[in-house]
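Section 5.1 Outputs to date
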Amino acid sequence: MLPYRSKKSVLIFILPPLLLYGAGVLSPVIQSLIISFFDWDGISDMKFTGLANYIKMLTGDSVFWQSFVNSMIYLLICLVLQLGGALLVATLLTGMTKGRNLVKTLYLLPAVISTVAISFLFQKIYSVDPNGLLNQALDAIGLHSWTHAWLSDPHTVLAAVSIPEGWRFSGLYMLIIYAAFMSVPSEIEEAARLDGTNGWQLFTKIRFPYIRPVWITTVVMAVTYGLRGFDIPYLLTNGRYGQLVTTYMYRTAFSNTNYGYASAISVFIVIECLIAVALIFKVIFRKEEA
């Protein structure tokens, strides 16, 4: 047990961040929860409707469910690019002796570039009139039939908006995973090599299990960020193509001025993130017990 003075000191240091967290995160969530029970256009008086917004969202809104499916596809692509790419690059970096810092810096660079700049860059890459870099490359290798409007084609728009999002955060996750790899005791790896362990066995039996707590945290970060992804998809398509739950919520609130229904969607996003985190921990802990 901590002495009274120590408890008081801890409370003094913890209280300001908790107050800021409550004001910046919990307060808007609670406000959205309250508004979700009303019909409100942002100007006139609020009309209490109970669970009507949630019933409409879950049973009578096909656009919402299509947006939900799009969000799941978007999340899957982002996770493959972010976590898969980060794990691969971090593993390769552990074996590099020269140029390691340069590669880390270049790979991390997208994480410090503004979202608007990234969106503008990929608009130019996907451009049709004039032809962007992607269509020009396809023309150059004789695949002219493959060139088309990537951001307005329902078959390619989700991949097109997921790639810049995956590219943007993969460097950040790579740095986290690489730092975890560097914390693996060298004595354990040397002993494993002396016992004849190959590179794959070293990764699967020693390195990856050792960084499991960091990997879990990284997966939670990537999943929650992916479920809340908004800025790049909206900037690239203005929310018109490949609509996600987040962009649908934004358009419902600020284009259709239906703040009650938009608040219900925002509450759904919060619950969705909490369920996703709970499932991640449940699956991981079940594997550890097994």
